[in-house]
Amino acid sequence: MDPRAHTHVTTALRLCLHALLVGLLALAATRSMDDTAFVVIAAVMAALYGAGALAPVVQPHTRAAALWLAALGAVWLALLALSPDALWVAFPLYFLQLHLLPVRWGLAAVAVTAAGAITGFLLHDQEIGPGTFIGPLLGAAVAVATVLGYDALFRESERRRELIEELVSTRAELAEAERDAGTLAERERLAREIHDTLAQGLSSIQLLLRAAERTLPHDAPATPHVRRAREAAQDNLAEARRFVRALSPPDLEHGSLAAALSRLSSRTSTPELAVQFAVSGTPVVLPTPYEVALLRTAQSALANTVRHSGARRAEITLSFMETSVSLDVVDDGCGFDPGATDGVRRSSGSGGFGLPAMRSRARSLRGTLSVESAPDQGTALAVTLPLPLPHPLPLPHPPADGEDPAA
């Protein structure tokens, strides 16, 4: 009858309750063998109890359970009217009432049953003593304490089970996030290395070969070789750039940084959190390390907002200025103390990319990271990176002849 987990302990308790009620009924019927009506009604109560115990519809806090208990109570009162021995059956009835009825109605049913037991005993002109009142009341108190104590232990066990499941799930998510972070970090490192060494070296070779080609006479024997060498350098530079694009974060593969941040805002928005994205200034093409740093910072900041802040609104602003680019992430959540150790630890929960890692990434690009927050005042995070050139050159494809191949 219990929809909760059927453990060995709960199964044993149910069997003990069944045995207790049937045993007490049998004992009362044995003591009243000369009273045929009592024996018949006791058999009817035993059959009614067995039918309810096996019926699937009799479940805690249901109408069927309440009707079943009412029928059992009526039959028990009939037994009690015939013999005071039926008083013993009140004890297992207490447990049934507390188990199947809501707490408020269960306590009321137990009180009525105890009062009925005492009244039935008095109606049979039995010797009145302290036990007449103490017995039923003490049995009711024991039943109430046992059932409520079991429920409290069960709730505590459920909370611990949920905490353990959450811990296991969190550990799995953390391990996956760490693997993903390690993979992305290695891809970004390789992209930077290829861009800063191999691609730049090939670009320089191409420039030098182009200069050499222009200084040579058109019919010089070395001119075709220099041209083929320049074309080979150009082809390899294009291949290196394809490697860099392939190793960039997936969100940056099919569009600009602004488009990636817009998609991030849309994915993060929920009925509980509205995320808006805006661009300020005239967008320019940024180097891949800049785009990666700004995108990762936005992802980490939004992850912290979702997990910790309880915010209803967040805004991401990408600002292009004359000599720098900045990213601002602002939310109206609970905020924290940026100078406190707990704040730093809290911010580091999103896959290992917290405030220290954000600052380190910004510092590696000669930028700065600032955080403004206070308890119940929301959080504002801003990262500013200086542009490497006054006018960055957009070169997503290999240059053709006559173009400047500088990367």
What letter string, H or E per element, gives the SSE order? HHHHHHHHEHEEHHEE
Q: Average pLDDT across residues?
A: 78
Structural class: alpha+beta
Proportion of helical residues: 55-70%
Overall body shape = rod-shaped
Strand-residue fraction? 5-15%
Total number of beta strands: 5
Count every helix, treating DSSP H or I runs of 4 or more residues as helices.
11
Radius of gyration: 39 Å
Strand order of the largest sheet: 1-2-3-5-4
Please describe the biggest sheet, giving its number of strands, its sense, and whether it closes into a barrel.
Answer: 5 strands, mixed
Task: Report how far apart the termini are.
Answer: 74 Å
> Low-confidence segments, ≥5 residues, pLDDT <50?
1-5, 341-353, 390-407
Please characterize this protein's 3D structure:
Helix content is 63%, strand content 9%. It is α+β, with helices and mostly antiparallel strands and 407 residues long. It is rod-shaped.
Summarize the structure.
The protein is of the alpha+beta class and 407 residues long.
